[in-house]
Amino acid sequence: MQTVYYKGALVSYMMDIRLSESGLTLDDLMCYLYVHFDYGREHISNADIQSVLEDLTAEDWGPFFDDYVYGTTSIVLDAPFEWTER
Prior knowledge:
The protein has four helices and no strands. By secondary structure, it is an all-alpha fold. The longest helix has 17 residues, at 4-20. The chain is globular and about 35 Å long. The protein starts with a helix and ends in a 17-residue tail after the last helix.
């Protein structure tokens, strides 16, 4: 069973996995956002995050955001996440 409660964490995890393919981590993204958006004082939109991801990785993150951030595409849970189905 997938709930909205799990979605943010799982999308962040998937983002981290994809960033690792470029030699980066979710921490790198968070640090970049923190510094470039006035230490958290400026509003950061989903579009801002997507734009930064595309700048950092030189990849198109549009389909990822369309499916998992804005859309309702199911997130397939692998064995390590079976505990979430309880």
